[in-house]
Amino acid sequence: MGGDFEHRWTQTREAIEVMKELWTKEEAEYHGRYFDFPLVKSYPKPLQTPHPPVILGGMAKNVLRRVVTHADGWLPNRVTPAEVEESRKKLDAMSAEAGRDPKSITISVYGQLPEHDIVHSLLNAGADRVVVRPEHVETEKEMGEQLERMAEAVLR
Asked: What are the residue boundaries of the Luciferase-like domain, all occurrences included (predicted)?
């Protein structure tokens, strides 16, 4: 959508900086490579302080370091419990090294099938939440039925 694919992290990092500036200051300005604006006011301010959580997704080799440096959580897609456990250990170590409370960084696993054992294995491995995905259906009725089955499977 008009982004610079080769420099997508640089652009994302600037976007995060811009949002934090606008969210946390009465008047903010920013002069970067991708975003540039004079002193402005932005309202309404978010309810969360200092700002809403910034969550980074992805599986790139640098994503965990980027989460520790710029975000409040990580959103991996369809990972195994072993990957969550290993990543949680890395995040905790990197957070401590950076002077951050490891508990300040969440892991929200996305895209899992709604199966009780899988969901609870991910939670036990260190995920803070698991977002299950419904399968494609054609009607609202089918979606309602599927959501009922998902709730029964995951919450039992």
From this structure: 1-111
